[in-house]
Design a protein that fits this description.
With 368 residues, the chain is an alpha+beta fold. It is built from ten helices and 17 strands. The protein folds into two domains: 3-141, Creatine Amidinohydrolase, Chain A, domain 1 (3-Layer(aba) Sandwich); 146-356, Alpha-Beta Complex (Creatine Amidinohydrolase), CATH 3.90.230.
Length: 368
C-alpha cells in the first residue's frame, strides 16, 4: 500500500467515525495522530500547524518555511502562511474549505496539541462544541492493521536480540550504563534507534522508573532491564528479570508470583473484556500472595506509534478491548531496598486472545 492510498483509506475510516459520533471537524496538531493519518511529521515550534478534516475536505495549515519538507510526505493541500503575514488568513481559508464556518459545530481536538493552537482554532470558529479524539482517531489507531503488526513485530524481534546480548554481557564489575551501551549498540547494528533503556541492579530494581547509573554488578544480585527500540517508526517495549548468581528463596517466590500474574492477565485478555478486568486478574494474584501493596502501577498500556497510548490496562479503565488492540501486560512487585521484579510482554489481541510479540523467555537467570 502506498502512502497516499494508506492516507486515503484512513481518511475514509475517520469520516465514517465522524458520522457515527456526529463530529463535524477533526483538528490535529503536530503529533503521532497527524503522523498516523497523513505521514507528516512537521517540525514543532510556536508556528501553528494543523491538519483539519471534515466530510468534504482535508488540508493543512502550514508555515511556508516547512512546506517543502512536509510536501515529501503528503499530497493533501496546504494553506500556507508566512511569518510576516501570520496564520489568521490561511486558517480562515482552511476553515472555509472544510465548510466549518457555521455555528455550534462539533470539533474533536487533538489532546496533545499545543494549547495556543487549539485556542486559535476555537476562537476562529463560531461557538463550537469540543471534545477530544478518543472516539475518532483514537478508536482507529487502537486497532492495528497488518502493516503495523509487521512493524511492531520486527521491532520486538530486535528487542529480543538486544535483551539477550545485555544478559549475556553481565559480569562482575560491569555497570548499569555499560549494559545500557550494549543494548544501544545492538539496536544500532540492526538499523534501529534506542527509544529508552533502564538497567537496574539490586535495589535499583525497586524503582519502577530507575535511571541507569554507574552502579557495578556484584555476585548474587537481582537484575531488571526495561528497554525498547524504534524501527521504521514503531517502538518495542519489554522488561526482563533475572538473578546474577544463585537466586534467593524470596526472589524465586516473588518472580513466581509475578509470572503467575502475567499468566492470569493473558488468560483474561479477550475481545469484549474490560481493561479493568485484565488489571484485576493480575492484581488478584499478587494480592493473594501478600504483595498487593508492592504492585505500584497499572498492569499495562497500549503501544503503537507511541510507547504509551490507549488502551490503558488499569483498575479505573472501562475501555472494552477489541481485536487488533496492542498493549502491554507488565505486573510487578517492588521490594524497597532489595529488588524489583516486573515481567512485561507486548501483545496483540486476536479473536482467541493475546499473541505475544517477543519470542524469548521471561526468566533470565545468569551464573557469574
Amino acid at each position: 500500500m502506498t502512502a497516499t492510498s494508506r492516507t486515503n483509506s484512513r481518511l475514509s475510516d475517520l469520516r465514517a467515525r465522524m458520522v457515527e459520533t456526529s463530529t463535524d471537524l477533526v483538528a490535529l496538531g503536530p503529533s503521532s495522530h497527524m503522523a498516523w493519518l497523513s505521514g507528516v511529521h512537521p517540525h514543532g515550534d510556536e508556528r501553528p500547524v494543523l491538519l483539519l478534516v471534515s466530510q468534504d475536505y482535508a488540508g493543512f495549515l502550514m508555515p511556508a518555511l516547512n512546506g517543502a519538507a512536509a510536501r515529501q510526505s503528503t499530497d493533501l493541500p496546504f494553506h500556507a502562511w508566512r511569518d510576516d503575514d501570520g496564520p489568521t488568513g490561511a486558517l480562515n481559508e482552511l476553515l472555509a474549505a472544510c465548510k466549518a464556518t457555521g455555528p455550534r459545530l462539533k470539533v474533536a481536538l487533538d489532546e496533545t496539541m499545543r494549547t495556543d493552537f487549539a485556542l486559535r482554532l476555537l476562537d476562529a470558529m463560531d461557538a463550537p462544541s469540543r471534545c477530544f479524539t478518543e472516539d475518532t482517531v483514537g478508536v482507529l489507531r487502537a486497532s492495528k492493521d497488518a502493516a503495523e503488526f509487521d512493524a511492531i513485530k520486527a521491532a520486538h524481534l530486535l528487542n529480543d536480540l538486544a535483551m539477550t546480548a545485555a544478559f549475556d554481557a553481565l559480569t562482575i564489575g560491569v555497570t548499569e550504563r555499560e549494559i545500557q551501551a550494549v543494548i544501544a549498540a545492538s539496536y544500532k547494528a540492526h538499523g534501529a534507534d534506542l527509544e529508552f533503556c533502564s538497567v537496574c541492579f539490586g535495589a535499583s530494581g525497586a524503582f519502577p522508573h530507575h535511571y541507569s547509573s554507574n552502579a557495578k554488578l556484584t555476585p548474587d544480585t537481582a537484575v531488571l532491564i526495561d528497554t525498547g527500540c524504534r524501527l521504521n517508526g514503531y517502538p518495542s517495549d519489554m522488561t526482563r528479570c533475572g538473578f546474577f548468581g544463585t537466586p534467593t528463596e524470596r526472589y524465586k517466590n516473588v518472580f513466581d508470583t509475578v509470572e503467575r500474574a502475567v499468566q492470569a492477565a493473558l488468560a483474561a485478555a479477550k475481545p469484549g473484556v474490560k481493561a479493568c478486568d485484565v488489571d484485576k486478574a493480575a492484581r488478584d494474584v499478587i494480592a493473594a500472595a501478600g504483595y498487593g501493596d508492592k504492585f505500584l502501577h497499572r498492569t499495562g498500556h497500549g503501544l503503537g506509534i507511541d510507547i504509551h497510548e490507549p488502551p490503558y490496562i488499569a483498575g479505573n479503565s472501562t475501555a472494552v478491548l477489541a481485536k487488533g488492540n496492542v498493549f502491554s501486560i507488565e505486573p510487578g512487585i517492588y521490594i524497597s531496598g532489595n529488588f524489583g521484579v516486573r515481567l512485561e510482554e507486548i501483545v496483540i489481541l486476536d479473536d482467541s486472545g493475546p499473541e505475544i510479540f517477543s519470542e524469548m523467555p521471561r526468566d533470565m537467570i545468569r551464573r557469574p
